[in-house]
């Protein structure tokens, strides 16, 4: 079982992150999984910007994977829409309800969190770790299956290789390696 930090976190019920947490427990004993890590983004100019990373997985000889977890169905607008009377610009990631996602969507959020973590480590006593480690980002849409993923838009900001689905809960190591 992977080393889980914290070992027994409290989860927000609607996030269903416990499903991913339980799947990541299946990783080998030499893997580390950090859940819900908050760091100050050292790259944020002029303000202290805290960012919360859903999961960080350290796999020896592979690298560090930053995972943004999303529950429910997500969609991508290509035309202007409205949510609760507010205009939603085209090319926006939204939940099935139509509510826009924070952070310019999960893919940008995952990538931004990865870079924030890298910068944070470079400015810490663990700077050598940041230089030696390979970093990756992905989005885990754990309530969507691979068949539904085929209908996702082909967009440069969301390569399908960086999307994990419901089926990946069964084989987390193989899925993260891809």
List keywords for this structure.
single chain, 178 residues, alpha/beta, six-stranded mixed sheet, two-stranded antiparallel ribbon, 30% strand
Question: How would you describe this protein?
Answer:
By secondary structure, this protein is α/β, with parallel strands linked by helices. It contains five helices and ten strands; from the N terminus they run βαβββββββααβαβα. It has a six-stranded mixed beta sheet, with helices on both faces. Strands 5-8 form a two-stranded antiparallel sheet. The chain is globular and about 45 Å long.
The number of strands is 10
Low-pLDDT segments, ≥5 res: none
Spatial order of strands in the largest sheet = 1-2-3-4-9-10
Rounded to the nearest angstrom, the distance between the terminal CA atoms is: 20 Å
Share of residues in strands: 25-35%
Query: What is the chain-wise order of helices and strands?
Result: EHEEEEEEEHHEHEH
- Biggest sheet architecture: 6 strands, mixed
Radius of gyration: 17 Å
Q: Tell me, briefly, the overall form.
A: globular
The amount of helix comes to 10-25%
Our count of helices gives: 5
Mean of residue pLDDT values: 85
Task: Report the structural category.
Answer: alpha/beta
Q: Brief description of this entry?
A:
The chain is an alpha/beta fold. The protein has helices at residues 17-24, 106-122, 127-132, 146-149, 172-177, and strands at 3-5, 32-41, 49-59, 63-70, 74-76, 81-83, 86-88, 93-95, 135-141, 163-164. The strands form three sheets. A six-stranded mixed sheet has the order 1-2-3-4-9-10, sandwiched between helices. A two-stranded antiparallel sheet has the order 5-8.
């Amino acid at each position: 079982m992977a080393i889980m930090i914290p070992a027994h976190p409290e989860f927000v019920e609607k996030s269903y992150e416990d499903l991913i947490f339980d799947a990541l427990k299946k990783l080998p004993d030499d893997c580390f999984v950090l859940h819900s890590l908050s760091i100050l983004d050292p790259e944020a100019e002029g303000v202290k910007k805290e960012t919360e990373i859903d999961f960080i997985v350290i796999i020896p000889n592979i690298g560090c994977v930053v995972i943004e977890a999303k529950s429910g169905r997500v969609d991508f607008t290509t035309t202007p829409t409205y949510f609760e009377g507010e205009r939603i610009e085209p090319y926006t990631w939204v939940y099935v309800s139509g509510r826009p996602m924070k952070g310019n969507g999960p893919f940008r959020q995952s990538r931004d969190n990865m870079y924030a973590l890298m910068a944070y480590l470079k400015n810490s006593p663990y700077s050598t770790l940041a230089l030696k480690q390979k970093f990756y980002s992905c989005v885990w849409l754990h309530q969507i299956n691979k068949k539904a993923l085929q209908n996702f838009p082909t967009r440069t900001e969301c390569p399908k290789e960086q999307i994990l689905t419901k089926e990946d809960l069964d084989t987390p190591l193989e899925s993260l390696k891809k």
